[in-house]
Amino acid sequence: MMQPSVAIVILNWNGKKYLEQFLPGVVQTHYAPLQVVVADNGSTDDSVAWLQQHFPEVRIVRFSENHGFAKGYNLALEQVSADYYLLLNSDVQVTEGFIGPLLELLESDASLAACQPKIRSYNHPQYFEYAGAAGGWMDHYCYPFAKGRVFDFTETDEGQYDVSAPIFWASGAALFIRSKVYHEAGGFDPYFFAHQEEIDLCWRIQLLGYGIRSCPQSVVYHVGGGTLPKGNSLKTYLNFRNNHIMMYKNMYGWRRLYVIFLRAVLDGVSAFKSLLGGDGGYFVAVASAHLSFVKWMLVDQKKSIFPKNKKGNLEGLLKKNIAWAHFVKGKKKFSEIVDKEVTN
């Protein structure tokens, strides 16, 4: 019986140093049939020349400009044929045999669309990494968090989340997904450019009736912040803007209205607190994000990808406010906030 085909697709933008460091491990992945594709997003360093010289077996898809994470992947995956895509950040170190558990999980259940490996920090290997940790969740007010990471607090990995379980979203740093479902859902929303596009996609996928799961039997290590470091104003702007667009698109009825209103209030409190603390850049980024969200509602909705269905059973959804639990009640860990019976 023929094995399902897998394409590891790495989106690159001026990331030669990461390709030099991590691509050799990716290329040495033991699985067949496998293809490794680097989609270059208009790099101005010599990434492409280096690839052509050192890894001629790697397929290169070239763009003349930087389309961002979302549109860049959409354009690249239109040109890649495989049963499964593994969307992998260029700053991720893979481990031996990491594809096997991911593939086995999705092959075991046709209702599952995507999964993610356990993601540890490359620089602090005993800790989970911010971007996804052991699987993404969402609270009632659309604050994303993860098993092993709540806001800026990351836990040490002591095996506490080593059982595969339903999650709300799988990290775009290492997203393993059925190709047909990626395209059925419409791919990433190109309007997002970057940040939270994988959460939006997984939300739309769940509304189609598919499941998303963690796969802790597979482990990778992520540097993180390779393109836009933490604290960057553009990153703050994109996160806030895209989060509100995502709420508007995927929610419906009265819940959408009150959640967006309440989030606007909470975002305003956070922004003014930062301004009083001397961080004017954060204040401007949040204010600009909200203005851009209004512009999107009035003018640009047609540029986004909306869910084909807005009613469905959502897994990995916390029906309370994680900000209250974390900042007011002082609960730091995922397992302290989410009921114990669903933490594994």
TrEMBL record:
InterPro entries tied to this protein: Glyco_trans_2-like, Nucleotide-diphossugar_trans
Domain Glycosyltransferase 2-like: residue ranges: 8-128
Presence of the UniProt keyword Transferase in the record: yes
Keyword field: Glycosyltransferase, Transferase
Coiled coil: none
Pfam families: Glycos_transf_2 (PF00535)
Keyword Glycosyltransferase: yes
UniProt xrefs under SUPFAM superfamilies: Nucleotide-diphospho-sugar transferases
Family statement drawn from the similarity comment of this UniProt entry: Belongs to the glycosyltransferase 2 family.
Name under which the protein is recorded: Glycosyltransferase family 2 protein
Organism, scientific name: Niabella pedocola
